[in-house]
Design brief:
binds flavin-adenine dinucleotide; 10 helices; alpha+beta
Length: about 350
């Protein structure tokens, strides 16, 4: 917005000392949908809705890479995989039966042939245990989200966008031709327009909207000698995900073990989720391997009944761009542009 309208005065109000949401705490998958996840989504949404969303993710990733550059993002095109145990036989049968269908849809969207394929011959080489089948997604990559955020902040500063950290916004109200923004320290400011982009924390400002917080828990291992695989991996319809970060493994998921408890905007770790991550890591992903868990953390996503972001006018001079779901890295850039256009042209 500032690039096309340099005279605008834009201020970002951020609660954290550093950006403290999902963008600095996520898994860094540059992904647009595993087959089992898309199949699950197609059971409750139309083909149009789902493949429109896949296209937005695909184009959004291209836009992000164009804005920041692969080197600054540490983008690595290692590919993505989906793994299936013998207990997932029915699910894997369904995914394999639909390979041609998904490849033809993805060809239409990406221009690439055979985005998905069978990679089961690599299971042994990767050292996994109890995995029967494995699909590859040739279009998937991974990024360093810390570097992404650093580059985005730098870009903002370079064009004169002010970022005020440590500002906890408590209320936003239309006041004549302006919006009044209240902070938790009693301070208020007036602004011509406000865009609410707090994603998983949005319920406070948009209580009637279909957006709920969803906590996701993650861990990272110590460096692993002779790590046997590189890439990003999906398991259990996307409820679990892991990837290499150099020669470490970042592993997250397990929210489906206790949906109710994870429907929160409070950071935190729970025994049931962390135990399941520890067990899958040891039994399936890194059997017979020496490693320690070096860090565990959580982040807050914004989810709803559908996976599309909400970009709209809320009232008067207040707008929102929220509900990035589990793929905000992919959706963020284009959603930001859509929101900027809305705010500017209204
Ligand atoms: C563990 C985890 C793994 C993920 N993995 C991936 C992945 O691999 N690939 C992918 O595409 N997506 C992934 N996601 C999702 C992705 O990270 C998010 O969709 C995306 O980062 C959302 O960006 P955002 O800017 O909308 O929200 P956020 O990054 O959450 O930013 C919202 C900001 O608002 C601030 N804020 C909140 N309340 C207030 C307030 N009252 N006043 C002022 N500021 C406030 C917060 O401090 C925060 O910095 C993951 C998410 C998590 C949690």
């Amino acid at each position: 917005m500032k690039l096309s309208e340099p005279s605008l005065h834009i201020v970002v109000l951020e609660k954290g000392v550093l950006p403290y949401g999902a963008s600095t705490r996520n898994a860094g998958f540059a992904c647009f949908g595993s087959i089992s996840e898309l199949l699950t989504d197609l059971k409750s949404h139309s083909e149009n809705d789902i493949f429109d969303l896949v296209e937005k993710r695909w184009k959004g990733l291209a836009r992000l890479r164009q804005i920041i550059g692969d080197q600054s993002l540490d983008y690595e095109p290692f590919g993505g995989y989906e793994i299936f145990t013998s207990a997932d036989k029915l699910l894997s049968d369904e995914c394999y039966e639909k390979l041609n269908y998904f490849n033809s849809e993805l060809h239409r969207i990406t221009g690439k042939k055979n985005v998905y394929g069978d990679a089961s011959t690599k299971i042994k080489e990767f050292g996994f245990s109890n995995i029967d089948r494995m699909l590859i997604n040739n279009g998937e990559g991974q990024i360093d989200t810390g570097k992404m955020m650093k580059a985005l902040l730098e870009k903002c500063r370079n064009v004169g966008i002010e970022i005020l950290n440590g500002v906890d916004v408590t209320k936003i109200e239309n006041e004549n031709k302006f919006c009044r923004i209240d902070f938790n320290n009693g301070f208020s400011i007036l602004s011509k327009k406000v865009l609410i982009a707090v994603n998983g924390f949005a319920q406070k400002f948009l209580p009637d909207y279909d957006i709920q917080p969803a906590r996701a828990q993650v861990l990272i291992t110590s460096p692993i000698k002779d790590l046997k695989f590189k890439g990003s991996f999906h398991y259990d319809c996307g409820y679990y995900y892991f990837r290499n970060v150099g020669n470490r493994i970042l592993f997250g998921g397990g929210r489906n073990l206790d949906f109710a408890k994870e429907k929160t905007s409070e950071f935190g770790l729970t025994e049931i989720v962390q135990d399941s991550l520890d067990k899958l890591l040891k039994d399936v992903i890194l059997p017979d391997t020496d490693y320690q868990i070096e860090n565990r953390w959580s982040g807050i996503m914004g989810l709803g009944d559908t996976k599309s972001p909400i970009v709209k006018k809320v009232s008067g001079n207040v707008y929102c761009a929220v509900r990035m779901g589990g793929m905000g890295v992919a959706l963020g850039s284009l959603t930001g542009e859509e929101a900027a256009t809305l705010v500017l042209n209204d």
